[in-house]
Amino acid sequence: MSVLVDRSSRVVIQGITGREGSFHTEQMRAFGTNIVAGVSPGKGGGDRNGVPVFDTVADAVAATDANVAGIFVPPAFAADAIMEASAAAVALTVCITEGIPVHDMVRARAYVERAGTQLLGPNCPGIVTPAQCKVGIIPNHINAPGPVGIVGRSGTLTYEVIQGLTQAGMGQTTSVGIGGDPVLGLGFTDVLRLFAGDDDTLAVVMIGEIGGSDEERAADWIRESGFAKPVVAFISGRTAPPGKRMGHAGAIISGNTGSAQSKIEALSAAGAAIAETIEDVVRLTAEKLGTPVLG
Amino acid sequence: MKLLEYQAKQRFAAAGITVPEGRLARTPDEAAAAAAELGRIAVKAQVPIGGRGKAGGIAVVDTPEAARREAERILSMEIRGYPVRSVWCETGLAIASEMYLGITLDRDRRRFVIIFSTAGGMEIEQVAVDAPEKIAKLWPDPFAGPLAFQVRQLAFAGLAHAPTLRDRAAKLAAELVTVTTRLYTLATQLDALTCEINPLVLTPEGTLVAADGKLEIDENAEYRHADLVTEVAEDSAADDGRTGDDPFEVEARKRGLTYVHLDGNIGVIGNGAGLTMNTLDLVKQHGGEPANFLDIGGGASAERVHNALEMVLLDPKVRGVFINVFGGITRGDEVARGVIAARDDLGITKPLVVRMTGTMEEEGRRLLQDAGIVPATSAPEAAEKIVQLTQGPAR
Q1: Contact B351/B389 with Cβ under 8 angstroms?
Q2: Contact check, Cβ <8 Å, A240/B273
Q3: For the segment B286-327, what is each residue's pLDDT rounded down to a tens digit?
Q4: CATH class of B247-390
Q5: Reported pTM
Q6: Which of A235, A251, A272, B97 is the 20 to 30 Å CA partner of A245?
Q7: How far is A170 from chain B (nearest CA, A)?
């Protein structure tokens, strides 16, 4: 099993004719993702490397029954693209775009909540269920099927963990990048809840970073819900100075909230194993799974 | 992008929120002229950071001579790293009560929150710790904005903790609906991440006046506010070109690089924010001190790597550079070519350690090795190497 996406996912790419959109569409197809449609306003009726292109998401859904959207449109139009997918009742929207204005995202997030659909991102690397479906920009070759669920804020750091686990012989059920923005769709708790219901996920790796309190709230949830699966947590930005935005719009320690220390303490108190390095993540996960480390 | 107090107040005034009358002065003479015109004034340092009162950046004066003297003193100050380039001279206010009104992002709720408190004049974060009951909050629907009855509820919830204002509560609540609605509309129009009036002064006559103003504009939305960006940039470029920001960070922005200046002596370049943050952590874990954070992002070209290396080495404290790359979209050979070209063009003699994995890693490592640059497979190993190579007396 897996969470959110699998081989039955039918994916529509918004912004399929753009530079990033067309490049990553081919990468996703090479991975095996079932891309059923693309959207590019004004280019409807044509196709992109054999994928039919529509003017609107509603048209694409009507013609192809797409149930997952991947968004690669520029930041000025991305919040609108999220709402468009949600209005067309696309069950899951994955928004890769970085740099969306916060006021736009607050509206898009409220819209998605009201429509009852799900949003991953923005400013995220996307999601992979190995050997079944990838939506986003996570490198193809690093993934392998197996028992570990991964949820992370940072893109490259999540890749590091996926690769480290794969090389050590531990594959993944699903790897989920929730993104580095202050206003997000699915958060750590939402994804943990999904992993809780996935029988094939035997352990979860959480990759957090400074800023906000999503990690602390996930820790609360782990304790309160009695989440039974082992959790290995890694937090980056331990040495980041307060008040400085570390690359990600959301990665900032403001006042008393958002420090790595506070997140580590909360997760540790919730019973998570805290990893100091990526190598530690691999070692601790193997310990939790009771499997020998390969490679 | 943070606006200065006077810039925020100009926006408040245009939105129909009452502010004290004031003049901007860049010289002591201009401050004296403002005092001659307005009478008793407060001379306030214009810096994009709080705590200027405690630092001595605000003075109340009665005469043009005193205004000149105080302005001269304040204009020569540097407040928490920000040189004072101008002072805002405004008429003093008679104060019946000081309140707080602000709009900011609530990350947990993924909404903007309007905060009202009768405990104004101090940092709201401190009020939240000392007297949380004195803080009233409203999370408006982002499509509808705050409705009048919701703001009245907010106002009465806040006023409930100020018995001295009980008599005026009805009139005050009505006034607060007007001010809050105008402030919220302004914050939305300007894409403000923070829009704050602290203190919001109630005068003995019963008028609400914005005695201070804070506005921070979302950098992602700057494309919608070109006029504002120009105005702020012009103000920064005024006088002798001094700027409130860290000069290295200003230079990095010009180069289009995501860079944060830190205190140490090991330059750090990574791809991706999380990975680069983790690289700083690794340097510290191995006993080193990072000089900066620089994220080259995804799919960086050799030119971008060249640009990044040049940027990091502008800081004379840097003794060596640790480059940490996970090749996804970014290609190892491309990064290697950028590093080698930068070293040769710039004549870099300081140690460079490159940790490279992922796409085209073998080709990248081979290029580096042939060029005499230390490659490393694991990030901890690379961190150890760069710390070793940069220890000892400065070259």
Answers
A1: yes
A2: no
A3: 999 999 999 998 777 888 999 999 999 999 999 999 999 887
A4: alpha beta
A5: 0.92
A6: A272
A7: 18
